[in-house]
Here is the input.
Amino acid sequence: MEGLYEMHAHILADVDDGARNIEETKEILKLEYADGVRKIFLTPHYRKGMFETSEDDILKQYEAAKEIAKEIDEDFELILGCEFYASGDIEVLQNEPTRTLGNTNFVLLEFSDTFSYRDIQNKCYELLMNNYIPIIAHAERYSILRKKIEYVEQIVDMGVYIQINASSILGLDGFNMKRFCKKLMKSDLLHFVGSDVHNLTTRKPLIGKCAKYVEKVMGEEYMKKIFIDNPFEIIK
Here is the structure.
């Protein structure tokens, strides 16, 4: 399968806890391409006090990564985005458009497990009221959402989208996580999949393998919806 989208990737060199250098960037991009991925949303962390790499430094690494992608294939596209931590101020998004996905109004929004459901709901509401569309990053990680799928339904009804990690769908993060992901798919509450790739060892790209698994479990039409059609709607 070709033409897949990678929705969550820490590939840019030395901007967060992802790829350490340009050589690692290159090797990860090669793996993504071999896996059938043709478009990648690059999502370096923004978290005040932890990950605050300047836009200039991120853009510099983005240009370097684009050159590598072009060497691999002219049609291999990298789209700059961000994984935005929920405690960040709206002003950051307004003043620095690279903190959204592809300079759109979509925001890949990260929480920690200490956030309550009300915290999650309030942050999503704040973004929506400021004309941003939240995509909750690796939603399966938050125990409050795993305990009560009705909370996911309520958030989606607000106009929020859900991204989960390929490793969780594949069961690499445990049986309970895999079962929750399957429940999301069966309930049509999953919109995007990302590898959340950080390196070549412990957090590798898994989009191709995951797409094959989802096709087997849920069918080709559903697989295309979450790996191709939904991501395309963002950049369209």
In short: The CA atoms of residues 121 and 155 lie 7 Å apart. The beta strands are 4-9, 37-42, 45-46, 77-80, 83-85, 106-110, 133-136, 161-165, 192-194. The chain is about 45% helix and 15% strand.
